[in-house]
């Protein structure tokens, strides 16, 4: 499998994503935001950061970068696409996943480790995850997931919720909600389950040197599901 990590002006987690994938012996290339060629990549990642300085609205300008035409076409063909943090915001702006990401309810930037409970039983990213909770870092100011009631019902009915914020035992509580997201939602998939968005950073918990490899377990699930 060949991975492509898109680099926008202001991306700052692109190399983190590259390093995590290379730790798993995967072929990875960086794709510049002005490119019109995905270089034959099978799986595209939109990394975290502050694309275009987060001016106007998070992800709103990056959504119109030249390469997004190819990224959207790739997703519409059924190709795999994942957005992490700012990448999730870009996916939402491009209407590739349902919902929007609003300012944290605390109105503060939050940077800490949190716990995630895998939810969807048939989405590529979560179907094989067995631990009740995964310790993953977050770092965002606009991560509060919001959608209208009909969209929330559809997400739940179709198993499109990937992760919810929880405590270390996998129990979803109000206290464990890191940013005020509706129903503690930390990540969602599109209806076809080939596009994945999540606010936490699994690529920042993939190297044993960091003392936490829960993120690598999540990323390895992609390989297990695709390569079987």
TrEMBL record:
Protein name (database record): Phosphoribosylformylglycinamidine synthase subunit PurQ
Localisation per UniProt entry: Cytoplasm
GO-annotated biological processes: 'de novo' IMP biosynthetic process
Keywords linked to the UniProt accession: ATP-binding, Cytoplasm, Glutamine amidotransferase, Hydrolase, Ligase, Nucleotide-binding, Purine biosynthesis
Reaction(s) this enzyme catalyzes, per UniProt: N(2)-formyl-N(1)-(5-phospho-beta-D-ribosyl)glycinamide + L-glutamine + ATP + H2O = 2-formamido-N(1)-(5-O-phospho-beta-D-ribosyl)acetamidine + L-glutamate + ADP + phosphate + H(+); L-glutamine + H2O = L-glutamate + NH4(+)
MF terms in GO: ATP binding; glutaminase activity; phosphoribosylformylglycinamidine synthase activity
Organism of provenance: Spirosoma fluviale
Subunit structure as annotated in this protein's UniProt entry: Part of the FGAM synthase complex composed of 1 PurL, 1 PurQ and 2 PurS subunits.
Keyword Cytoplasm attached: yes
Protein function: Part of the phosphoribosylformylglycinamidine synthase complex involved in the purines biosynthetic pathway. Catalyzes the ATP-dependent conversion of formylglycinamide ribonucleotide (FGAR) and glutamine to yield formylglycinamidine ribonucleotide (FGAM) and glutamate. The FGAM synthase complex is composed of three subunits. PurQ produces an ammonia molecule by converting glutamine to glutamate. PurL transfers the ammonia molecule to FGAR to form FGAM in an ATP-dependent manner.
The EC number(s) this enzyme carries: 6.3.5.3, 3.5.1.2
SUPFAM superfamilies xrefs: Class I glutamine amidotransferase-like
HAMAP family: PurQ
Database matches in PROSITE patterns: GATASE_TYPE_1 (PS51273)
GO cellular component: cytoplasm
Residues at the catalytic site: 85 (nucleophile), 201, 203
Transmembrane portions of the chain: none
């Amino acid at each position: 499998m060949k991975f492509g990590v898109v680099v926008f002006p202001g991306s700052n987690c692109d190399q983190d994503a590259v390093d995590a994938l290379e730790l798993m012996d995967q072929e990875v290339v960086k794709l510049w935001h002005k490119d019109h060629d995905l270089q034959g990549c099978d799986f595209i990642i939109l990394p975290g950061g502050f694309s275009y300085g987060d001016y106007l609205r998070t992800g709103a300008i990056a959504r119109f970068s030249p390469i997004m035409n190819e990224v959207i076409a790739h997703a519409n063909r059924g190709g795999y696409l994942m957005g992490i943090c700012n990448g999730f915001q870009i996916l939402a702006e491009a209407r590739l996943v349902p919902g929007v990401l609003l300012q944290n309810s605390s109105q503060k930037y939050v940077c800490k480790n949190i716990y995630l409970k895998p939810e969807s039983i048939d989405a590529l990213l979560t179907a094989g995850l067995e631990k009740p909770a995964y310790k993953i870092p977050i770092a965002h100011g606009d991560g509060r997931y919001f959608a209208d009631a009909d969209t929330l019902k559809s997400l739940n009915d179709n198993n499109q919720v990937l992760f919810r914020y929880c405590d270390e035992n996998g129990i979803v509580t109000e206290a464990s909600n890191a940013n005020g997201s509706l129903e503690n939602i930390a990540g969602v998939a599109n209806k076809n389950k080939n596009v994945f968005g999540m606010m936490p950073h699994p690529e920042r918990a993939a190297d044993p040197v960091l003392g936490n490899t829960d993120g690598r377990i999540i990323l390895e699930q992609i390989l297990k599901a695709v390569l079987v």
